[in-house]
Amino acid sequence: MSILVTGGLGYIGSHTVVELINNNFDVIIVDDLSNSEKFILDNIEEITGKRPIFYPFDLRRKELLTQVFDAHNIEGCINFAASKAVGESMTEPLKYYENNLFSLINVLQEFKERNISNFIFSSSCTVYGQADEMPIDENTPLKEAESSYGKTKQMGEDILKDFSRAYQKKVSLLRYFNPIGAHPTALLGELPAGIPNNLVPYVTQTAAGIREKLSIWGDDYPTEDGTAVRDYIYVVDLAKAHVAALKKLLNSENETVLDIYNLGTGKGSSVLEVVKAFELANNVPVPYQICPRREGDITVAYANADKAEKELGWKSETSLEESLKTTWEWQKYLNDRNN
Ligand SMILES: NC(=O)c1ccc[n+]([C@@H]2O[C@H](COP(=O)([O-])OP(=O)(O)OC[C@H]3O[C@@H](n4cnc5c(N)ncnc54)[C@H](O)[C@@H]3O)[C@@H](O)[C@H]2O)c1
C-alpha cells in the first residue's frame, strides 16, 4: 500500500517514514528540500534497508503532483510539508499562508478528484494558544493563534474538517506538543537552518560550542522555577503515533472520519529542567543566560493524551533523559559530518 509522505525528509517526516517502512508500507516522499537535505534519504535506507521513492519538488507545483498521483496507487497521505518558523511567520506571513495552505490544498484536490481517503495532518498545540487550564485535552477551546504560523495550522484544520464532511473522507488531525530527540542510530534528527528556534537544538548546539550561550527567554513566569513549561515528546514515539493513526483510518468502516488527537507525554518540563536533564544525561555543560521574555511565548502547555492512548493504543514511552541522550548523539554525528 503506497502512502504519500509530504515533507518526508524533514525532522518528524523522516522518523515517520522509517516507522511506516517498518510496518510494511510503501512510501512515496515529496519534499522540496527547503528545510532538509538529501543525505537523509540515504540514512533512511541505511536504517530500514529500503529506499523510498523520492520526488524533489515544491508541492505548490500542482502539475508535478498530478504526475506523482498518475504514477502510483496512493491510498493515503501524511502531510508534514510546511514552513514552521514561528518568528519568521510574523515578518513573512504571506510565505506561510502561501506555502502551508496552497501545498495542502493541492494534495486535497488530488484526493478529491481521485476519490482517495485517509489523510493525516501535522497540527500543533499552538492551536490552543495559552489555554486557561492544564492539562490540555482535545476539547480545550482553541484561542486566536499568536503567530501567522499558528493561524496556518488552525486554517489547515478548518480546511480538513470541511474536506472530510463535504467529500466523506477519513481525516486525522494530530496536534503535536514539543517534539525532541533523534533516531537511536543517530542517523536522523532535527536539522535547524541558522539559529535554532526550538530549545533542544539550541541546547545541543551550545553544548557543542557552536553557540556561545543558550538564551533562556524569561525566568519570571508564574511557574515553579520561573521558566516556561512545555511537554517534550520523543520524536520516535511521535512517529509511531502516525502509524497508529493511519492504521485506524485504514481499518475504519465509516466513510467519514474526523479524528483529533493530542500527542504529548502529559508531563510539563520547564526550560531549566530540560537544561539540567541534558547536562546530567550527557555529562556536558550548557552555559546559559537569562534574557527578557520573548514576544508571543506562552507560559505553560502540556497535554492530556488519554484519547490517543484509548483510541490508538499509543502512548509516549521514552523519558526526557533518554530523548536528550539521542539528541546529543545526533549533534555529534553532525559535527563529524561537517568536519
Ligand atoms: N517540530 C515541531 O516543533 C512541530 C510542532 C508541531 C507541529 N509541527 C509540524 O509538523 C510538520 C513537520 O515538522 P518538522 O519539524 O518535521 O519540520 P521540517 O521543516 O523538518 O520538515 C518539513 C519538511 O517539508 C518540506 N517542505 C516544506 N515546504 C514544502 C513544499 N512546499 N513542498 C515540498 N516540501 C516542502 C521541507 O523541506 C522539510 O523537509 C510541519 O507541518 C510542522 O508545522 C512541527
UniProtKB/TrEMBL annotation:
<keyword id="KW-0119">Carbohydrate metabolism</keyword>
<dbReference type="InterPro" id="IPR016040">
    <property type="entry name" value="NAD(P)-bd_dom"/>
</dbReference>
<comment type="similarity">
    <text>Belongs to the NAD(P)-dependent epimerase/dehydratase family.</text>
</comment>
<dbReference type="GO" id="GO:0005829">
    <property type="term" value="C:cytosol"/>
</dbReference>
<dbReference type="InterPro" id="IPR005886">
    <property type="entry name" value="UDP_G4E"/>
</dbReference>
<comment type="pathway">
    <text>Carbohydrate metabolism; galactose metabolism.</text>
</comment>
<dbReference type="GO" id="GO:0003978">
    <property type="term" value="F:UDP-glucose 4-epimerase activity"/>
</dbReference>
<protein>
    <recommendedName>
        <fullName>UDP-glucose 4-epimerase</fullName>
        <ecNumber>5.1.3.2</ecNumber>
    </recommendedName>
</protein>
<keyword id="KW-0413">Isomerase</keyword>
<dbReference type="InterPro" id="IPR036291">
    <property type="entry name" value="NAD(P)-bd_dom_sf"/>
</dbReference>
<dbReference type="Pfam" id="PF16363">
    <property type="entry name" value="GDP_Man_Dehyd"/>
</dbReference>
<dbReference type="GO" id="GO:0006012">
    <property type="term" value="P:galactose metabolic process"/>
</dbReference>
<comment type="subunit">
    <text>Homodimer.</text>
</comment>
<keyword id="KW-0520">NAD</keyword>
<feature type="domain" description="NAD(P)-binding">
    <location>
        <begin position="4"/>
        <end position="326"/>
    </location>
</feature>
